[in-house]
Known about the structure:
Blueprint: H1 3-10, E1 22-23, E2 26-27, H2 28-58
Antiparallel strand pairs: 1-2
Amino acid sequence: MTKISEIAWSQKSDNSDALVFSFHGTTMIEISQHLTQLCDNALIAEEHRLEANQKEILC
């Protein structure tokens, strides 16, 4: 179990505010948003890589 998982389990709550607790000054919502941005950037980079490969093949 990771440190974040351990904290998440120890902070477990019955209400929706459980996602807002802080981990080193960063809320879980902010962490989720950063992960989403990283995934989006990875997908965009993959699209650019595929386009570059297609252009190279067609030349």
